[in-house]
Specification:
- Helices cover about 80% and strands about 0% of the residues.
- It is built from 22 helices and no strands.
- α4 crosses α14 and α18 runs antiparallel to α20.
- The longest helix is centred in the last third of the chain and has 38 residues.
- The protein is globular, with a radius of gyration of 22 Å.
Length: about 475
């Protein structure tokens, strides 16, 4: 595909998204709740689409296709575990986050922890963990865009050019109108993602039908991909962080604050469930098809770009834009949430008297810093996209004990929460940097164990927040009435 066609397709998508972003702005004064939560007035369809697009990023059409290309159907099991875990967690936690956000005027995920544990240091520590861990994950989105642009243009456009394009689009979609802009452009991008993947799978299925059938060819030539070939430690290490993604990744947790009513929450969960199942199955099928059509790739993450070179330009252009859209939709949500957490949970903690206008300006400025950090990290081209994503999520997994305790354990304390986040995060960081897998288990497993043990032990020996019982009981009563 020529560089001019690629740039033209990017231009059309960018103009359409920019128009949606620009027209999403509201007139008059914009406060924090409006900029970061859309004033908590997002309907069910947009909530479902922005949750889906935020969750399913470049790691699907690039990373998951590459993982399936290398390991086969085991990758499908990994991704379906994530989907089932997410739906279950949404049913359990979405009403609680939504009610707490409205009742106590909470904006960021870390602010909820600070409020529940009556200690702003909890939110600050949690925000620092998220900043450290989410930069690699956000960078994965730029990596996917870079690989795609470089491969499809046969090197006419460099990897770095692809990452810069994705970074610029992300920034524009975030800046103008905050969450309203991100949510509405996410809806467009989710539709593009689904339509493009269906178009590609339809075209390839017809080609395999002409050649004797996809299933028959797969069994005859790549039968090993139909067997479970992951060790238990590999499966647990890769799957565990994703299973709890819905309550440990702040960019999706913040989405639980935005639906306008309980009906919108239900539509969000159902819409995500349908989207996730269809998109997952399609991506795994594409990985298996790529293994048949283009065997022997040294870098599995190049399976999708190489596959697109074998289909008509009309199909490859749509898929190309859909992958960029997937990357940007996740990237802009991360950038928006992290900038909010920086202002709300770090800056506000240090400067309690700062005005809301100053906090918002500082949060918008930090977007630029985060974008530059992600862009620089993406140039390192580290490891498989899915593995790198899972390692980042492994670091975020250490928040799980503090989150569960906030909603369900009245004995949980602020010092317990901080100890679990700090010690668990340091464990994951050290083991990841040194590539240490004690007893064969991945860093996420040990990080979670350290976090859980620290949380329970320290909480049992420290003072319980005065309003812990009230917080949990009030949420329970609200849920029983509203849901």
């Amino acid at each position: 595909m020529s560089a001019s066609i690629l740039m033209f397709s990017i231009g059309i998508w960018f103009v359409a998204g920019s128009y949606i972003s620009y027209t999403s702005r509201v007139s008059g004064k914009v406060d924090l709740a409006e900029y970061f939560l859309g004033s908590r007035r997002i309907d069910g369809f947009i909530s479902a689409m922005t949750y889906s697009a935020t969750t399913y990023s470049a790691f699907m059409m690039v990373g998951l296709v590459g993982l399936t290309y290398r390991y086969g159907v085991a990758a499908l099991g990994f991704e379906l575990m994530y989907l089932v875990g997410t739906v279950f967690l949404l049913i359990l936690f979405a009403p609680r986050y939504w009610i707490a956000g409205k009742k106590y005027n909470l904006i960021s995920p870390s602010e909820l922890l600070s409020f529940r544990y009556e200690n702003k240091a909890v939110g600050a520590v949690n925000t620092m963990l998220c900043l450290v861990m989410l930069v690699p994950y956000a960078s994965v989105q730029l990596m996917g865009a870079g690989y795609l642009v470089e491969t499809l243009s046969d090197g006419a456009l460099s990897y770095t050019t692809g990452t810069i394009i994705a970074a610029i689009v992300t920034f524009v979609f975030c800046w103008w109108a905050g969450l309203r802009s991100v949510a509405r452009t996410d809806a467009l991008q989710a539709i593009i993602m689904l339509v493009a993947s269906i178009a590609l799978i339809g075209y390839l299925t017809s080609k395999f039908s002409d050649a004797g059938g996809f299933r028959q060819m797969l069994v005859a030539n790549k039968g090993e991909l139909l067997r479970i070939n992951w060790s238990p430690s590999f499966f647990i290490g890769l799957t565990l962080p994703w299973t709890f993604f819905a309550v440990t990744n702040p960019q999706v947790v913040q989405r639980l604050f935005i639906p306008k009513d309980r009906s919108s929450i239900r539509k969000m969960i159902l819409g995500f469930s349908y989207f996730g199942f269809v998109y997952t199955v399609i991506c795994c099928l594409l990985g298996l098809m790529a293994a048949l059509l283009i065997p022997g790739l040294s870098l599995p993450d190049n399976a999708m770009p190489m596959l697109l070179k074998r289909v008509p330009v009309s199909v490859s252009v749509i898929v190309f834009v859909s992958i960029l859209a997937a990357a940007v939709s996740t990237m802009n949500s991360i950038v928006l949430t992290l900038s909010n957490m920086f202002g709300r949970d770090l800056l506000k903690a240090l400067l309690p008297s700062i005005s809301e206008e100053s906090e918002l300006r500082a949060s918008k400025m930090i977007m630029i810093v985060i974008m530059i950090a992600c862009l620089l990290f993406a140039q390192l081209r580290l490891d498989l996209i899915v593995v790198l994503s899972s390692l980042a999520s492994g670091g975020l997994l250490v928040q799980l004990p503090a989150v569960l305790g906030a909603f369900f354990w009245k004995r949980a304390t602020a010092k317990g929460a901080m100890a679990s986040i700090l010690l668990g995060g340091l464990t994951v960081g050290y083991m990841s940097v040194t590539n240490l897998k004690f007893l064969g288990q991945w860093p996420a497993v040990w990080g979670l164990l350290v976090a859980a043990f620290s949380f329970i032990l320290v909480s049992l020996h420290t003072k319980v927040p005065d309003t812990a019982n009230q917080f949990i009981d009030e949420l329970k009563d609200e849920i029983s009435v509203r849901f």
